[in-house]
Write a structure and sequence with these properties.
The protein is mainly beta. It has a single domain, classed as Porin (Beta Barrel), CATH 2.40.160. An eight-stranded antiparallel β-barrel has the order 1-2-3-4-5-6-7-8.
Amino acid sequence: MISNSHSNYLFKAGTYSAVLLFAFFFAIGKVAHGQDYTFGVKAGPSYSSIIGDLTEGFKFRFSGHGGVFVHMRFSDKFALQPEVVYSSQGFQFSTDLASIQSFSPSTDGNDFRTNVQLNFITVPLMAQFALNDKVAVEVGPQFGFLLNQVTKIKNLDEINTSGVARRSSVNGDFQLDYGAALGLAFGLNEHLSLSPRAYIGMRNRLNGLGGLAQSYNVALQLSLNYGF
């Protein structure tokens, strides 16, 4: 049974997402008036982590992303591509309790694996510069709004691994993340394109430490795009 707090969060997340999408398409309609523009959808795998201070042992995790975009071509060499994308990011790490608690050396290996999933609604605003008819460089700012953080802890020593991961979820309260994205766009045909992209966050996740430590979100994405 879904709790009232969880239901309220889902309603709030759905409302904010709907308002964001409406505002996105309304603004794009105004900007793109009179331009050569194409609506499209995109999806693909992501490879993300957190880098900086207090991140020793953090590893990249595979996940995915998907969303919508508008490609607005102003000339043969220049275009803008605003997007609204659901992006699952985060990191993972392993913990060796034998080492931490000075257990017997016979209990060798990592005992627990922790997977931290950060679910964002991201808004990349990409400028594209065509190198030729098929390839373009894209660069621009990206803003992210944290939906929630899901943490899964799995005991690696348990023989039966089915359903043993402990799971907890924390409301993200649409916490802002921002940074820069850089990538390429490869045209495959009239409708399909492929775009590898790297994102580096510029908002310090450890602001609460008074600037004594800094860490940032990073992500690599490979998107298959379909324009209508």
